[in-house]
Specification:
Helices cover 35% and strands 19% of the residues. Strands 19-15-20-14-13-21-22 form a seven-stranded mixed β-sheet, sandwiched between helices. The longest helix has 29 residues. The radius of gyration is 23 Å and the shape is globular. 54% of the residues are buried.
Length: 550
């Protein structure tokens, strides 16, 4: 069965193709359009069709729109209610609903040959659940979805019997943990539905001194749901102007909301586990990108396995919707593997782009060794290899790399990317060495969706990746899954004794992650990066005249 999954309503438009139960392509529209999170000026920001990513995904799968058995759209307008009835202040909600109802016609116009009658509406939170529960390598699991909003709810708790979802609880709007976090993000001067990860990072710099006041407004209700009453943010901390200085009171407010969020999530998973007794839980929804909360669930809940899909936000509902429709058609579903489901480029295509750009380049004997030497010499490397990642994390395909042994490299990378100084960068570590260096969080951790305590004896050895609270957001690298990245890490370890490198996304502030060779060259040309490793080729910042193309 040939299924195209589409997310195209709130934010992060994306497309995915599932053929005969196997995921063959998945990507966010922002990687093609270069508009981060698919944002356009209000009121059109929420309604960008993933035309470019869908067209690419179909081509990658080798099929045309006319060959599709179904298009799975991750929102069901039949389940929606007017925003006013739900207690939401959303003047564009009625336009959004009209847009969703007309999605079959819009998709048929964007993908010539598509029969609009083949569009299937999948409830938003069911699509979220499927993106995790149907993709989990081990079946029979519980699932918890928490985000800003779906059609009329903001949460789903359920369990999979085989591949059949049984919904056990759902929280009706306006109560929403995701919208609460979005409100705080906006109060702190950042973009809602975009910059929530900045709040999570800032929280580590504060104390949860407003926790008691917030817990009166935000708490679990004991029946699998929760309550989020309106919060007077200004009574706790004054608003921060966009681009303005953050103050201790802002960090304390972020810490307080983060703490209350974690406590509510722990109560939700505790309730869910009590209903089922299962040992595994899959998390999805935008809140599942909160890796600090994920780690508390892993460390403190009764579940042995906590699994989070790398595109846990709305982009992942394109995959989830396609998996759900495939399952409904009795397809045998393959488990989710690596996250490199986006665009890739042949060596020839990369070389052609380098020639067109007329930049000095070379093909070393081994690009992994070349990069390891540059990192050992304390250079910053732009790493562009293989297919791009699905989801917001750079996982060794579109990364900026640096030496973790120099504490100055944290500020250096934040300056390269043009982002806030309090933001951490992450360690990429060889899987076999991870347990020696990182504690508490789950290992392996291939998708960078948990935080781990850094062992005391390692904090001074890899200071660039140790956050202010002594943790690190780890990505483990298995040589069977990522042989080139592992060879680079091994080569770096031979030179430095460190099986870890700094890994952050290959982009600059406000821009989507690099996706194409052209994007990589533009980023390299505008940022103080020492080496671009693109496929088997390298481009050097110093451009020594004696180096020639090979």
């Amino acid at each position: 069965m040939k299924v195209l999954g589409v997310n195209a309503l709130f934010h992060d438009p994306a497309a995915a193709v599932v053929l005969d139960g196997r995921v063959v392509a998945a990507a966010e529209e922002e990687r093609f359009s270069r508009r981060k999170h698919g944002k356009r000026p209000v009121p059109f920001s929420a309604w960008e069709l993933p035309e470019l990513s869908a067209t690419w995904a179909l081509a990658e799968a080798g099929i045309g729109p006319d060959e599709l058995d179904a298009v799975a759209y991750s929102y069901d307008p039949a389940l929606a209610r007017p925003a006013g009835e739900l207690g939401l202040d959303d003047p564009f909600d009625h336009v959004r609903q009209d847009y969703a109802r007309q999605a079959p016609e819009f998709l048929a116009s964007a993908l010539p040959g598509l029969d609009p009658a083949r569009v299937r509406f999948v409830p938003h939170h069911v699509a979220h659940a499927a993106s995790a529960g149907l993709a989990l390598p081990q079946q029979a699991c519980d699932v918890l979805v928490v985000d800003g909003r779906g059609e009329s709810a903001s949460h789903l708790a359920g369990t999979y019997d085989g591949n059949t979802l049984h919904v056990l609880a759902a929280q009706e709007l306006p109560h929403s943990l995701g919208l609460l976090y979005e409100d705080l993000t906006e109060h702190l001067g950042w973009l809602r539905s975009s910059d929530e990860y900045k709040v999570m990072a800032l929280a580590s710099h504060g104390r949860p001194r407003f926790r008691a006041e917030l817990a009166e407004r935000v708490h679990a209700t004991g029946d699998g749901g929760f309550e989020t009453l309106p919060v007077d943010w200004a009574a706790l901390a004054k608003p921060r102007a966009p681009g303005g200085e953050w103050l201790p009171e802002h960090a304390d407010l972020a810490s307080s909301v983060q703490t209350v969020l974690e406590e509510v999530l722990l109560e939700l998973v505790g309730w869910l586990h009590a209903q089922t007794g299962n040992r595994r839980v899959a998390l999805a929804g935008g809140v599942a990108l909160n890796c600090v909360a994920n780690t508390r669930i892993f460390a403190e809940s009764a579940y042995d396995t906590v699994w989070v899909q790398p595109a846990a936000g709305d982009a992942g509902t394109a995959l989830g919707a396609a998996l759900q429709v495939s399952y409904d058609a009795a397809e045998q579903l393959a488990p989710f593997g690596a996250a490199d489901l986006g665009r890739g480029w042949s060596d020839t295509a990369i070389e052609d782009r380098l020639r067109t750009a007329a930049v000095p380049w070379e093909r070393p004997v081994d690009v992994a060794e070349e990069v390891a030497q540059c990192l050992a010499d304390d250079g910053v490397v732009a790493w562009f290899q293989g297919r791009s990642e699905y989801g917001p994390r750079a996982l060794g395909h579109r990364s900026l790399l640096a030496n973790p042994g120099s504490a100055a490299n944290l500020d250096r990378l934040n300056a390269v990317k043009g982002r806030e100084s309090f933001r951490p960068v992450a360690p990429m570590v060889r899987a076999g060495a991870a347990a020696t260096i990182f504690r508490r969080g789950p290992l392996p951790s291939p998708y960078m969706l948990f935080v781990h305590d850094v062992a005391d004896e390692w904090r001074d050895r890899i200071p660039a990746v140790v956050h202010v609270d002594g943790t690190a957001r780890v990505q483990t690298v298995d040589p069977a899954d990522e042989p080139l990245v592992d060879r680079m890490l091994a080569a770096f370890e031979r030179r430095t004794g460190l099986p870890v490198v700094v890994n952050t996304s290959l982009n600059t502030a406000g821009r989507p992650m690099v996706d194409s060779p052209l994007d990589a060259l533009e980023c390299f040309g505008s940022a103080p990066v020492d080496l671009l490793a693109i496929g088997p080729y390298v481009v050097r910042r110093d451009r020594h005249p004696e180096r020639t193309r090979s």
